[in-house]
Design a protein that fits this description.
binds calcium ion, elongated, 9-stranded mixed sheet, 4 domains, Alpha-Beta Plaits, binds ligand C2E, about 600 residues, Beta-Lactamase, alpha/beta
């Protein structure tokens, strides 16, 4: 029978007494007190039934174990109570924490509040250690004071906590700290920087065209790349720096402890940025292929004072986007001037939204002629008559309209206005034969209902669809070639024609061109500009003309400004032209007047006016 059986399973005073004899001999408690204790203790025992407790319990006097429950025995790897009975309670505590626990017991015995708790390290019989929560309570029985220690093994809780923490603060793909961690750390870094007077830097590193990789090679490869990037970025860290995966393909880094002089800290920051740029520029081995993925890096310095986390984040973000706009694979350091241009852009955007309602757009028309100067067609070019800034050219607002989606209502307005114009020109002998070209953006062309709304416009205005020409660019055609061909064919059925704008600047191969139902190629003006002096351009132009002829396509050159250019084009076999040499883009009234007054008036050149 075990000591445990003796003491706990029976209320027999003899059996309990025999246990107390051992205890008392060690603790020297008077006989009278024993009897009193036994009585009270047994009362207490039946009240609480210590075996039902979900945690370990040890009852001790003056720091010496008197009784424990089974949970306690299991927790510390003992088989029976005899192994701990009469021993210092702290025998089950790691030596380095014993002082601390003795203190706790002392406090417990002495204090009035009589309950205290501590996280400590438990020591098992086999010598292994584990995290332990110990909570002590003073129990007074007559004039005897006992310490009840409740013990909880924290191993599982700690594991769970670690797991929760790692979920909350770490990114599982790269094992790097995440956004939450970084922001918390940035707070500390700012405080420290202010205190020690050293500068720091915040870097935002975004991968270029990561989406394309994900789409073309699959998410698994994308994940692999992110892991490899994380790994390479780690190699750029100096001691005390922090790297996080901020989300998606964006990594953010905090550099701490830079120089206290701005020019030096700026150099240090740039050096790290350039190192990152260099390290990330090497190709990656993804599966059995090599892949190149460049970063755009934005960075800003901080000195702890006066700076808010949100502001710093915004600054690096602005700088990073500037790096993207600056052609990618580059570093851009934040400059307050950047915000000025961003604000200007925001203003432009909000004004662009109102411009349609306020009827601020106009179409200007530019003539297209044959080799005799006879007008064949017209290109419609949009202008924005801004109430304050006067005339704004499309290069300044079309890209923004494309980004914001405003190009859709704007494009629709262009189509409507062009149809109205064609209808008007139908009844005029000077204009009824003219084709009218409109520029269509990729977003517009890719709209699901693009064909139907062009069809509806043609019907509504009852125009000859053969005179409506849609100018597309190479890039947008190749994006999804099957869909493109289908859309173009549907439009061709309506009768609309197509010109391939800016030809030569994209990547069109003969293979694709053959399948596209095009009517015309338009040689980009970049090949015309130096045609008289650049023999390479001459060769390109001649090649394009030959290619167009072999594909049975008409050919036109844009941006023709001089007679010399026109002559070279003519000699190369290109007989249709558009450019300042013949006519600049102009409002419709002026354009019609010009047509009536004859060809010599078409030779205008110079600045375009409103
Ligand atoms: P684009 O379609 O290549 O238009 C030709 C551009 O060259 C026009 O600029 C025109 O004014 C200019 N140009 C014409 N002849 C000459 C010349 O002899 N020399 C020089 N240096 N330039 C000449 P613009 O009107 O500023 O238009 C710029 C671009 O904006 C257009 O390039 C087109 O891509 C876009 N765009 C214009 N109107 C629209 C529109 O209604 N919708 C869309 N989506 N884009 C438009
Ligand atoms: Ca065009
Ligand atoms: Ca063009």
């Amino acid at each position: 029978m075990t000591m445990r059986g003796l003491s706990l399973m029976s209320d027999s005073s003899l059996e309990v007494d025999s246990k107390l004899v051992v205890f008392n001999s060690m603790r020297d408690i008077s006989k009278h007190k024993h009897a009193e204790y036994v009585l009270r203790e047994s009362e207490l025992r039946s009240r609480t039934n210590i075996e039902q407790l979900p945690f370990g319990l040890s009852i001790s006097r003056d720091g010496y174990t008197f009784d424990v429950n089974n949970v306690y025995l299991n927790m510390f790897g003992y088989n029976e109570i005899a192994e701990v009975f009469g021993q210092p309670l702290t025998n089950q505590i790691s030596p380095q924490c014993r002082g601390q626990v003795n203190e706790l017991i002392r406090e417990c015995i002495q204090s009035d509040s009589n309950e205290s708790m501590k996280e400590t390290i438990g020591l098992r019989k086999d010598g292994s250690e584990f995290p332990l929560l110990i909570s002590t309570k003073r129990v007074v029985l007559g004039d005897l004071t006992f310490t009840y220690a409740y013990l909880i093994d924290l191993t599982e809780r700690n594991k769970a906590e670690e797991k929760i923490e790692s979920h909350a603060f770490y990114d599982h793909l790269t094992n790097l700290p995440n956004r939450l961690y970084l922001i918390q750390h940035l707070k500390q870094a700012l405080t420290l920087s202010a205190r020690i007077g050293r500068q720091g830097a915040l870097l935002s590193i975004d991968l270029d065209d990561f989406k394309t990789l994900n789409q073309t090679l699959g998410h698994e490869m994308g994940d692999q790349l992110l892991q490899k990037v994380g790994h390479r970025l780690k190699s750029c860290l100096r001691e005390g720096d922090t790297l996080s995966r901020f989300g998606g393909d964006e990594f953010v880094m905090i550099l701490e402890n830079l120089s206290n002089r701005e020019s030096e800290s700026d150099d240090q920051m740039r050096a790290v940025c350039n190192r990152i740029l260099n390290v990330l520029n090497h190709p990656y081995q993804l599966g059995d292929r090599k892949y190149r993925c460049t970063p755009s890096i934005g960075a800003t310095l901080f000195n702890g004072n006066k700076q808010e986390i949100d502001d710093l984040m915004k600054q690096t973000d602005i700088a990073m986007h500037q790096a993207k706009e600056g052609g990618r694979n580059t570093v851009c350091i934040y400059d307050p001037q950047m915000e000025v241009s961003i604000n200007a852009r925001a203003t432009l955007q909000s004004e662009l939204r109102k411009a349609l309602d306020n009827k601020e757009f106009q179409l200007h028309f530019q003539m297209q002629v044959d080799s005799t100067g006879h007008p064949l067609g017209v290109e419609a070019l949009i202008r924005w008559k801004h109430p304050v800034c006067d005339m704004i050219f499309p290069d300044k607002f079309i890209p923004l309209a494309e980004e914001t989606g405003l190009i859709l209502p704007i494009g629709q307005w262009v189509l409507e206005t062009a149809c109205i114009q064609l209808k008007k020109w139908e009844s005029d002998e000077f204009t009824r034969h003219l084709t009218l070209s409109i520029n269509v953006s990729a977003k517009q062309f890719r709209q699901i209902d693009f064909v139907s709304y062009v069809h509806a416009a043609v019907k509504r205005h009852n125009i000859n669809p053969k005179l409506l020409k849609i100018e597309l660019t190479e890039g947008m055609l190749l994006e999804n070639i099957e869909e493109t061909i289908a859309t173009m064919n549907s439009l061709k059925e309506i009768g609309v024609t197509f010109s391939l704008d800016d030809f030569g600047t994209g990547y069109s191969s003969l293979k694709y061109l053959k399948h596209l139902p095009l009517d015309q190629l338009k040689i980009d003006q970049s090949f015309i500009r130096e045609l008289a002096t650049n023999s390479c351009d001459k060769v390109i132009v001649r090649t394009i003309v030959t290619m167009a002829h072999s594909l049975n396509l008409k050919i036109i050159a844009e941006g023709v400004e001089t007679e010399e250019q026109r002559q070279i084009l003519f000699n190369s076999g290109c007989t249709n032209y558009q450019g300042y040499l013949f006519c600049k883009p102009m409002p419709v009234e002026q354009f019609e007047k010009l047509l009536r007054n004859g060809k010599e008036h078409l030779m205008l050149g110079g600045q375009e006016s409103g």
